[in-house]
Automatic annotation (TrEMBL), chains A, B:
GO molecular function, one term: transcription cis-regulatory region binding
Species this protein is from: Paractinoplanes toevensis
Keyword vocabulary terms for this entry: DNA-binding, Transcription, Transcription regulation
Domain HTH lacI-type, first and last residues per copy: 7-61
Matches recorded under InterPro entries: HTH_LacI, LacI/GalR-like_sensor, Lambda_DNA-bd_dom_sf, Peripla_BP_I
Protein name: LacI family transcriptional regulator
CDD domains: HTH_LacI
Amino acid sequence: MITVEKVTIATVAERAGVSRQTVSNVINTPEVVRAETRERVRAAITSLGYRVNQAARQMRTGRSRLIAVRIESGSDGINGSVLDRFLHGLTDAATLAGYRVMLYTAADDADEIATYDDLLTAHDLDGFVLTSTHHGDPRTSWLAARDVPFVTFGRPWGAPDTHSWVDVDNDAGTLAATKHLLKAGHRRIGFLGWPRGSGVGDARRTGWAAAMTAAGLDVTGLSVAVIDGVDSGAEAAGRFPDDLTAVVCASDSLALGALRALPGRAVIGFDDTAVAHAIGLTSVSQPLAEAAARCMHLLTELLDGRAPATSTQLLLPPSLVVRQTA
Amino acid sequence: MITVEKVTIATVAERAGVSRQTVSNVINTPEVVRAETRERVRAAITSLGYRVNQAARQMRTGRSRLIAVRIESGSDGINGSVLDRFLHGLTDAATLAGYRVMLYTAADDADEIATYDDLLTAHDLDGFVLTSTHHGDPRTSWLAARDVPFVTFGRPWGAPDTHSWVDVDNDAGTLAATKHLLKAGHRRIGFLGWPRGSGVGDARRTGWAAAMTAAGLDVTGLSVAVIDGVDSGAEAAGRFPDDLTAVVCASDSLALGALRALPGRAVIGFDDTAVAHAIGLTSVSQPLAEAAARCMHLLTELLDGRAPATSTQLLLPPSLVVRQTA
């Protein structure tokens, strides 16, 4: 026999030892609550299984309280886990805010735009969280032209900053990684990245180059580009000069390849995947749960008509998780 | 320049000189639209040859073409990726079948049941795919008592087989792993698993024990149980007898721990995670995309009234992915 007890905002407040107003603030305007209190309230919400009553809210607001996000078709192993972690964070944040998340897949931008139309018609969605923004992305202007509320995880590469977005400061990640290696005495530090043209990949290269240049070091011949993968990374790492002592990589997959091809050299990955944790790879970690919570918060501001007149852009700092490889 | 050739609700809205919402109303709740507007929208629908899609289907069939699945709160690294891969497969299969997937989180069974109630009320869901079935699971009987269509990924441990389910044959996975080690000449093969009481964990232990017994080998003192994790696995692996030469593990996390604690010994993991691929760990692979597609197929059979009179149970065979560690 299962008894479903009614957990109310008062129950949460009592458990967390705060006022009901504070609980409400954590749900609706988390930025006004101190981080420590926020965590305590969120822990109470999770442990009590508190859910904002959806049906009641929909009646009050005339909204479906349903948002949509794309999930990649299939799953590509090491790197796919980044968007999966963002999805977990987004679902948690949406649940806290009383929203549900609907998934869709799309083969390309045109297919995704056709899907928006279908979803808006069939399911009366409130808004979208877009991921994997890129140069020449047509999705944001389509949604903006139709006044559909949306937020992107990823800045509008090359397009005007007319919508709200959250991104992680990729340059800062590789800059910190490179500085860490410089501090350890390395001078011949390479960058193993992706072919030019990807906003994220180019930003990660820029951070490394900036740290090297600031240290007065020559980067000629120290940047190698390859399609992401462990095997491709190992192959490409063989192209570095022999006197190289350390490598900053654009992904953990490439870092694994570099470790295999260049034993004994210091290696730093990017994304702090489960693989990095498992094998002791030093890696740059993206604050994905935080990014997801911020996206959800910006979207609910838009939906509640509480958004500031101008769009909001948030660039979150990554952190370096130091383990054994550097 | 993106051209979406499909005639959409937006095209109809533009032609009729009304908002998208009005078109949607004409399709779903025509009684709220003025007669003159209704006629103009219907004329636009006819002249454009607009194929009323999901919304109209829902009106006709009384179904939302929406199914729900739980996503775990947070993400626990190595092993969490198994359910993420199932989710990717389920979304792909649902899209092919013309369904969308809605996500929810739940702290425990009672919270999940309360969520069912909320979802069924607020979003008119067609059915559920349940994951992580376990002994004493109250969720299936709750749904069955209310005639809500559902399929489980995971057999009904201990409960009657009254609903359709898909599972992976865990016993067969560790049996194959153990036979692989026996064939390579190992005789002192341990099992590193989870504490008794978990259906999946016990089944994985059973497969190992069956292979050992069939080979006429004594298993006394060769089974060690611990809470899942790399560090806990390493600690527990120290409890094996010194003459042990190989270990079959209930997860890749435990296998990583065993590799660290018992260098030089043969180790086989379970779940074939990205970590296994990255470090060359031999591991048992679950056919997750296949399992997801089968779940979706069984659910659509139920929803379309095409299901056989008795429920269907599918036990899919895992496969052993042989790499460097065994």
